[in-house]
Amino acid sequence: MEDAILKRFKESAEAKTRFLKGNLPQLLDAIKLVAQALEAGNKLFLFGNGGSAADAQHLAAEFVNRYIMNRPPLPAIALTTDTSILTSISNDFAFDEIFAKQLKALGKKGDVAIGISTSGNSPNIIKAIEVAKEMGMRTVALTGNDGGGLAKVAEISLIVPSNSTPCIQETHILIGHILCEMAEHQIFLKENP
Q1: What's the structural domain count of the chain?
Q2: b/e for 30-68, b at 16 or more Cβ within 10 A?
Q3: How far apart are the first and last CA of the chain?
Q4: DSSP-derived 3-state class of residue 118
Q5: Widest pairwise Cα distance in the chain
Q6: Global pTM value
């Protein structure tokens, strides 16, 4: 059992290290994009399926409440939380529309859409990012493997180069925490990342 535990920790650490080596410039761009949008009075919209839905909710809470510092709340909305909206759109239209229709209703030019998909091939995430771009929103993808179709449509793609879903998800949470922490520093302490 110890060997299996050590192996998992090593795999997770290696995925994070590979991500950072290949994506530091993109991560810095995403931090600037998020911080500038929030400073300008815009909102973040986060969305994903399954574990990525939970990640969207977790990260929205960090922005709205606090991450490291006590500071004014930042506007972030997880589009994964309203079961009446999710089920009505799925029932009346299609599951592929559940996030796109919410962005059409709630988003505006200058807001940021953050789509999370470990495979990069979730049709409802890709559709939402496409709609966000059409609306003049800024777009960020958190994905894995080779980025899939999502990496091709997002303005900034943060791709975890792994085919292990757990390692990708663990890295996505770290990325989200860094986005929030650095945005806090840039907005409230006037420190550039």
Answers
A1: 1
A2: bbbbbbbbbeeebbbbbbbbebbbbbbbebbebbeeebe
A3: 40
A4: coil
A5: 51
A6: 0.96
> What tens-digit pLDDT sequence spans the chain (193 residues)?
999 999 999 999 999 999 999 999 999 999 999 999 999 999 999 999 999 999 999 999 999 999 999 999 999 999 999 999 999 999 999 999 999 999 999 999 999 999 999 999 999 999 999 999 999 999 999 999 999 999 999 999 999 999 999 999 999 999 999 999 999 999 999 866 5
CATH number, domain with residue 48: 3.40.50.10490
Q: Residue 148 is encoded by which pair of tokens? A: 């899939």
* Residue 161 belongs to a domain: yes
The separation between CA 58 and the C-alpha centre of its own chain, rounded to angstroms, equals 10
Closest CA to 31 of 167, 184, 146: 184
Could you list the residue range(s) of the whole structural domain that residue 102 is in? Answer: 15-188
Residue with tokens 């180069």: 161
Contact 112, 140 (CB under 8 A): yes
